[in-house]
Amino acid sequence: MSLRRRPGNVCNLAVWSCLLMAGQLSWESAKAADHGDTPSLVGANRRDALITDLHTFVRNGRLVLSVCTNPAIPVGATSYLFPSDLTVKILVDRNCPVTFDHAGDLATYGGTIPSPEGIQEDVVFQVTFPDGVNPVLSTQGLSLAGQASVRVFAGLRDDPFIRGPRLGRNVAAIVIDIPLIHVATSQPTLVIWATSHVPELAGPFQELAGRALRSMFPENDPMNGMHPNQHTGVMSVPPDVIIYNTSLPALFPNGRELDDDVVNLVGDPRVLNNDAPFPSGNDRPFLDVFPYLAYAQGLEPTPLPALSSWGPAALIASMLFGLALITHRRRKAA
Amino acid sequence: MAESAVAMAKASRRHPPLIALVCLLIAPACLGHEARVHSRAITDAKIVFYQRKLEADPRLYPVYVQLAAAYLDKARETHDPAYLPKAREAVQESLAIQPSLDAYQAMSAICNYSHRFEEAVTWARRAAETSPQDTSIIAALVEAHLGLGQTAEAEQLLSALPASLEDFYSAASRGHVLKARGRLHEAGESFLKAAEFARKEKATDLAVWAQVQASKTLLEMGQPERSAKLLEGAAALDPTSTDLKLQQAELLQATDKAEDALRIYEAILVEMSDAEVHARAFRLAKRLGETERAKGHFEAAEREYQRAVEAGEFYTLGALARLYLDADLHLDRALDLSKRCLEYQRDALSEQTFQSIQRKYQNTP
């Protein structure tokens, strides 16, 4: 959404508040401060549809696709409801020709797509939330065996983005995994991207996530409403997708591992200079098991009793009780 | 245009996504009056659309916020205070389902608009906790603090902002804080910086607004020629801007062209009714000795201010008190209004209004 102002209320003395109405203006893109990278969604009060990160890697022979959304979940939230009108898709082109002989492209994008206009999704994972909690997955382009072996997780997780301002923050995560053999059927290299869509907003989707730290910058904002096969034709830039040669370990920009510190790896000063305290790892440990993302801030993984105001009191009371019991028995024995 | 809005609203029953798509795609290309009518039609269509979406799924918490934003637009466009409680209720519904930054920010904007500055501080703080680097939230906080006369708090917020976050919001906010401190020259510079940021983002209306603020500051500094020059620059960007026209009238008034200024106010009022413009027109007409014109404007302003007061809103208390003060009417009521206003708004203007009325009241036999 472009910056705009509706007719102001002169009557109201705080006229400038008209400029500051939620959703009126979006400068986040210019700042690229966090993940608020799509002005149209911020302007429409739909930060819930913002995609913050796309990770893709292989674990135990399974291709993991993780999409995180909503950078604006209040601190302290311990549950999350996905809006029922939100559609998130992860799309995979498994036949796209990719070359690896251009050193610059290899270092920046993970490879070169010689014919970007030919990018086409062969496999689609579509996730919706009719009841707000339970993800409903529908797929295209998978064999029956493939469909049967997909796992889906959706819920509140610690933000895996390794970035100063995101320490201690949660996101709404969707993680899918599937045996790699059901996706990489014709070649080891996959071209992957994700989109989010709110029905009444213009365009087939409003947010696109490909390689980290691309479409979040203002000069690349048009990418968010465009299929990757149009990026080069319209914007004269390589398409915003993740190139993942699955025959090699995932390491940005070849796929994206959870512990890839993309802020450092990309080195864009707009993000790097604003990364204090400059973390090089995530603030919570990633899991060894599906869905791999760290537990949400405020949600402890083990059922340790919370240190509530009753905790210490109960501990002291039980110690006193024990002491009294021992004393009583000794006296009785004496 | 209004009919087309009704048609869109009807169509939305059949094709909800389509209608909203149309709403969002229609570029606000029209100018002046037509643009305002167009904008109102879009707001109406949005309200109908969001209401229907919520009927279909009452747990769609982001849509309540969208509905609230549309209600606030409606309140701004029509000056009908009845939309403000609707906006607040819609945000509360959203928060009851799931707290969100969008809801916090919308609530702070609604509270700032309706001069519930203490509440605005609470909501904007929650928003700032969620998104600490969002300068639009800092600006909302600054505005609320200034409304409460807490200039030091507002200053502190801006001084804590890193230089890398300097943008339209921070520059505009800084302009207001400097103005509140009486540092008019620096305030003007800050507004000009805000105008520059807006121009770079191709936000013409914001650039005009900021430039008009800079012009206003120069006029307050007693520099009408430099003020006029800035207005010329703003007119080159958008000659139909209401902000611009109002400042042109202020400038004419300051340069002893009261009749011309009054004409501008009345031209604005042909396009839209606005209590503050009526109040300004009343003061000018009174000064020109145009008793009947003054009476008409006074009554219109009083009616609109009163409507908000009767609806339980506070944001016109001070303005209505000032109207009575300038009209030498109902001083006891003016005193009561300005006293009540100070419960919610404690900026310099509200304090001055109260003191002036009190002085006049005490001197009245």
Can you characterise this structure?
The complex is a heterodimer of chains A (334) and B (365). Chain A has eight helices and ten strands. The longest helix of chain A has 24 residues, at 310-333. Chain A is globular and about 90 Å long. With 334 residues, chain A is α+β, with helices and mostly antiparallel strands. In chain A, strands 3, 4, 5, 8, 9 and 10 form a six-stranded antiparallel sheet that branches. In chain A, strands 1-2-7-6 form a four-stranded antiparallel sheet, with no helix packed on it. Chain A has one domain (30-303). Helices cover 19% and strands 21% of the residues of chain A. Chain B is mostly helical and 365 residues long. Among the domains of chain B are: 167-236; 314-365, no CATH class. Helix content of chain B is 80%, strand content 0%. Chain B has helices at 2-14, 16-25, 32-56, 61-78, 83-97, 101-113, 117-130, 135-147, 151-159, 168-180, 184-200, 204-220, 224-237, 242-254, 258-271, 275-287, 291-310, 317-327, 331-344, 348-363. In chain B, helix 10 (168-180) runs antiparallel to helix 11 and helix 14 packs antiparallel against helix 15. The N and C termini of chain B lie far apart (55 Å). In chain B, 54% of the residues are buried. The interface between A and B is large, with 54 and 87 residues.
